[in-house]
Amino acid sequence: MSTSDPSPRHLERFSASTDVGMLLEALHRDGGVIVEGMFDASTITEMSGAADVWANDFEAGSATQGMGAAGAAFVGANTIRFSSLGRMSPAFFDMLDNPLFAALADAELLAACGTYWLNTAQVMYIGPGEPAQALHRDADNWWEYLSRTFPDTPEITLSMMIGLDHVTEELGATRVVPGSHIQDDLGSQFTEAESVPAELGPGDALVYSGYVFHGGGANRTTDRWRKAMHLSVVAGWLTPEEASPLDYPLGSLVGRSTRVQQLLGHRSYVPGDRPGAGLWLRHVKEI
């Protein structure tokens, strides 16, 4: 049981045309908000079709988090995960340029950084019989920073779980503990009974704080896969999970938007009016 024992409640659902201020209000209150129709049907159809093809090259349980047995358990023995999604389909770059996610990420992260990177983008197919994932916070990736600043840590990462198909509770919809992002105790823990499922249609997105407790739900079916993808961004002075510049070498993003180039590590971190200096610089002589 958690230290604060919040009562389970549903997450608010809004259309993608809803005022950004209303979405942020729900996000700040509950730690997550569902935005219906955040991505258009053609983009999701392209991404879903490409993901189905790519998934054939990955064995369930082959993903790791670089943490041995604990990491393997975290990513799931019957779950297919893979990243480098811009190499899978150019529709991924359109997703990075989504204006609503840009508005939400700007509002949440730019109070603490000049610019931000893509943290990771992963296809996540949860297979039949997969148990529920452990509830966790995405911000714990940067535990050393978090442990020194909590509870006054600014938002440093913002995530989305996006439906590539219909994602139901039975299939393993991501479970969220509403209100768990507001804690005084960094060691707080929560149970599945305190969580609620974030059911999604194709193109819907669960947008959630880096501090909210969440996890993939149990797939209780015998023959169906939960098809979704994760996309997150992180403050530009932190190291992302995904080494995007290795996937997109110099010259490969010519013609893409400035935002896409920034998110994928092809532009420097600039602190703006905050203390600090530029990071991720290149000083070379062109020949």
CATH class: Mainly Beta
- Sum up the overall morphology in one term: globular
Please give the largest β-sheet.
7 strands, mixed
Name the CATH homologous superfamily: q2cbj1_9rhob like domain
Q: At CATH's second level, what is the architecture? A: Sandwich
Approximate strand percentage:
15-25%
What's the multimeric state? single chain
Uncertain ranges: 1-6
| Helix content bin | 25-40%
Query: Please, what is the average pLDDT?
Result: 93
Instruction: Assign the CATH topology.
Output: Jelly Rolls
Helix/strand order, N-terminal first? EHEHHEHHHEHEEEEEEHH
Number of strands: 10
Verbal overview:
With 287 residues, this protein is of the alpha+beta class. The chain has a single domain, classed as Jelly Rolls. Helices cover 25% and strands 18% of the residues. The protein has helices at 20-30, 41-55, 68-75, 85-88, 91-96, 99-109, 143-149, 244-247, 258-263, and strands spanning 13-15, 32-36, 79-82, 116-126, 157-163, 175-176, 196-197, 205-209, 214-215, 226-235. Mean pLDDT is 93; it is low at 1-6.
Short summary of the structure?
The chain is of the alpha+beta class and 287 residues long.
